[in-house]
UniProtKB/TrEMBL annotation:
The modification 4-aspartylphosphate is found at residue 54. InterPro entries: AAA+_ATPase (IPR003593), AAA_lid_NorR (IPR058031), CheY-like_superfamily (IPR011006), Homeodomain-like_sf (IPR009057), HTH_Fis (IPR002197), P-loop_NTPase (IPR027417), Sig_transdc_resp-reg_receiver (IPR001789), Sigma_54_int (IPR002078). It comes from the Bacteria. Residues 144-368 form the Sigma-54 factor interaction domain. One of its GO terms (molecular function) is sequence-specific DNA binding. GO terms for biological process: phosphorelay signal transduction system; regulation of DNA-templated transcription. Keywords: ATP-binding, DNA-binding, Nucleotide-binding, Phosphoprotein, Transcription, Transcription regulation. This is Sigma-54-dependent transcriptional response regulator. It comes from Syntrophotalea carbinolica (strain DSM 2380 / NBRC 103641 / GraBd1).
């Protein structure tokens, strides 16, 4: 490797002196600058492999210098130096092309030396890492990243912020793999040996969600026969994944904010504060900033969760990865089958409103229908040859299925009457495949969430205890149906005792139909 040239930009002379002495002992050539004028002059007269840039300077900022460096010397890798209070801006710098950021004060000299060595190696490779550090980790946990530049940049950023122990907000459409990315961040962090606990905030009523999050004391409510720890307590020293955080009520949001601010909470019915050390990774398929404007999401909680925001691209924007994903799923479902070239082309042309989850379910169905060694178009029940569905915003899955797409003209939107004509009876539903039934169920859940949002805007939603009662009854009934009315399994899924579930079934008049 040729001689490494490093530019150090910091308004503190002591910092410049520290890095100059440290790096010259390693054999690097160094140039220092204390302001923007000196930095630009150095860039005009020299070529650098690595630039160490302070985020706060008297006459400019690190983001501005980052743009100057990348425009003049694209192969120069930039390391941002920052205090903890500016980590969010430092992460923004990484999204703009910075290689990494360092927190002040500098305590781990070996870490700094390794970081500069890796950054200089990337510079000599033309800005590309031949073998990303995260690739083996992703492969070991079955995380298929693919070749899409947007996706690779996202995972690279996720890997770099994973050890920082800061809150992460993941946004993306339904089915893009938000939980997979959350697990990757946990696995790449110092908490990897501890528990990772996911919970869907939109799947439980307020009462059930609060008990699930914080636990309860014996006798705190009817049916609470024993003390039960919540997942904040169980995830101590580990990571907690709050999926669909936008579905949590304002009352739950207040309690979450307190835990994030103080690291303490009380069980339901408890009197003692319990301390927890939990890294929170949250996810949403709706725009939380829009929800804040509608006063449906607390602004203070948003900024607590949104220290770093990672946005997963939809599958339709990374079509180059579809063949790799498709072959992987087919191999998982049946290693003896292969996909024809015609099918791979059709898969890449389809819009996949349900993203990776829809792709997986569709291929599972095709594998089940294939009696030969090669999967052909006829094994997809006309889905891929029908008109392509329009992408639906806010992560809402398409309601149309293959049979429905064929029944309706491509240019017209399906009416409510025609929808229920196709799907309103058990006889019609029984004609759908397992994959289509799963897709339809996921679509209806997304539709339900959007219906509630529109009804709230129009003042049509039920208020007070009636809404809570309906929500809890619906949640219980849905769980019972999913577990085929197995009381033990349903109670375990709901986090309540069997006798409590029996009482609620009687209270709400639920019946096994």
């Amino acid at each position: 490797m040729s001689k490494v040239n490093i530019l150090i930009i910091d308004d503190e002379e002591s910092v410049c002196t520290f890095f100059r002495r440290l790096l010259q002992r390693k054999g690097y050539r160094t140039v220092t600058a204390v302001n923007e004028e000196e930095a630009l002059k150095a860039l005009d007269y020299g070529t650098f492999n690595v630039a160490m840039v302070d985020l706060k300077l008297p006459d400019t900022d690190g983001l501005t210098l980052l743009k100057h460096i990348k425009s003049r010397q694209p192969a120069c890798e930039v390391i941002i130096m920052t205090g903890f209070s500016t980590i969010k801006t430092a992460v923004q710098a990484m999204q703009l092309g910075a290689y990494e950021y360092l927190e002040k004060p500098f305590e781990d000299i070996k870490l700094i030396e390794r970081l500069i060595e890796k950054a200089s190696a990337v510079s000599f490779q033309g800005g590309k890492e031949e073998d990303e550090e995260w690739s083996e980790l992703a492969k070991s946990m079955g995380f298929l990243v693919g070749d899409s530049p947007d996706m690779r940049r996202l995972v690279s950023l996720a890997y770099k912020i994973a050890p920082k122990d800061i809150s992460v907000l993941i946004q993306g459409e339904t089915g893009t793999g938000k939980e997979v990315l959350a697990r990757f961040i946990h696995t790449a962090s110092a908490r990897t040996e501890q528990m990772f606990i996911p919970i869907n905030c939109g799947a439980l009523s307020d009462n059930l969600l609060e008990s699930e999050l914080f636990g309860h004391e014996r006798g705190s409510f009817t049916g609470a026969g024993n003390m039960r720890r919540g997942i904040f307590e169980m995830a101590n020293k580990g990571s907690l994944f709050l999926d669909e955080i936008g579905e949590a009520s304002l009352a739950i949001q207040v309690k979450l904010l307190r835990v994030l601010e103080t690291g303490e909470f009380m069980r339901l019915g408890g009197e003692k504060q319990i301390h927890c050390d939990v890294r929170v990774i949250s996810a949403s398929n709706v725009d939380l900033e829009d929800a804040m404007l509608r006063r449906e999401f607390r602004e203070d909680l948003f900024y607590r969760l949104n220290v770093v925001k990672l946005v997963i691209p939809p599958l339709r924007s990374r079509a180059q990865d579809i063949p790799m994903l498709a072959k992987y799923f087919v191999k998982q479902f049946n290693p003896t089958l292969t996909l024809s070239d015609e099918i791979l082309d059709l898969l890449c042309q389809y819009d996949w409103p349900g993203n990776i989850r829809e792709l997986s379910n569709t291929l599972r169905q095709a594998v089940a229908l294939c009696d030969d060694k090669v999967i052909l178009p006829e094994h997809f029940s006309g889905k891929l040859t029908a008109s392509k569905p329009r992408p639906i915003s806010n992560g809402q899955a398409a309601v149309a299925s293959p049979a429905f797409a064929e029944a309706e003209p491509a240019s017209s939107a399906p009416s409510l009457e025609s929808f229920w004509e196709h799907y309103g009876t058990p006889e019609a539903l029984s004609q759908l495949s397992d994959g289509e039934l799963t897709q339809l169920l996921n679509s209806l859940r997304g539709l339900e969430a959007n219906l509630y949002a529109v009804m709230r805007k129009k003042g049509l939603s039920s208020a007070g205890s009636e809404a809570l009662r309906d929500s809890e009854a619906a949640s219980i009934k849905r769980t019972l149906l999913q577990h085929r009315w197995n009381i033990t399994e349903a109670a375990r899924a709901l986090g309540i005792a069997r006798n409590t579930l029996h009482r609620k079934i009687k209270k709400y008049g639920l019946q096994n139909q």
